[in-house]
Specification:
about 230 residues, three-stranded antiparallel beta sheet
Length: about 230
């Protein structure tokens, strides 16, 4: 029963986010295949289609709170530009406006962070707004969207910090991850060695993964979720 409840809630949250984003004009293709290809695992097809086909299953409070949350971060201005909520170095709330043009390589592929199949997502726009922020304030050391110093630009909370590779024992890292998640912090990590076997996948460098708790502490002290992937 608990597993079914969790899965059901996951589908509801995914469908609710897509429904509200579509209402704001931030996404146009809302069919199951398009959304799954773009964002990864969104739950069962039948559950997703059930919610999207009958929006009355969402409460008004759920719609309003999700819409307000989306609006508070990124706004489509309707003229091929977006306004992103950010914070300046002292922590004052600012609006950063960027166009819908993105960096592309000679092969036509997008050179910024993307979703599945080289698709532009909200993260692509946020990364571009971060580039503008860095240029405007002439701040060095941000390095990329995957670093611990990127989150304060969007949250206004500057108390971010990081541990260098190999500075913690596994038990210490596990303790810190559990504490950080319990505090509700954005907690990310990565790998400094690539192509190491990891379950059915391999490690990837220069990429951020979200730390998660694990159901099997004997074999995995913690989990790491790829934001664009299918598996932990």
């Amino acid at each position: 029963m608990r597993e079914n409840f969790v899965i059901g809630r996951a589908v509801l949250k995914a469908a609710l986010a897509i429904y509200c984003a579509a209402k704001q004009g931030l996404i146009t293709e809302t069919d199951y295949n398009s959304v799954a290809d773009r964002f990864g695992d969104i739950g069962s097809r039948s559950g997703y289609n059930r919610y999207m086909g009958n929006p009355s299953l969402f409460t008004q409070l759920e719609i309003e709170s999700t819409t307000n949350f989306i609006k508070s971060i990124l706004t489509d201005n309707g003229d091929n530009t977006y306004t992103v909520k950010m914070y300046d170095p002292p922590g004052k709330r600012i609006d950063v406006c960027v166009s819908n043009k993105v960096l592309c390589g000679s092969d036509g592929n997008i050179g910024q962070c993307t979703g599945k199949n080289n698709a532009v997502t909200w993260a692509t726009i946020m990364e571009k707004s971060m580039m503008k922020w860095v240029t405007l304030y002439k701040m060095t050391g941000v390095e990329g969207i995957a670093t611990e110093v990127a989150a304060p630009l969007f949250t206004g909370d500057g108390e971010s910090y990081a541990f260098s590779p190999n500075s913690l024992y596994t038990s210490e890292l596990k303790t810190f991850i559990e504490w950080s998640l319990a505090q509700g912090n954005i907690t990310v990590g990565g790998f400094n060695v690539g192509d190491l076997p990891c379950g059915k996948l391999k490690t990837v460098t220069a990429h951020a993964f979200t730390f998660m708790l694990t159901d099997d502490e004997e074999t995995s002290p913690f989990g790491m979720r790829n934001p664009w992937g299918w598996y932990d």
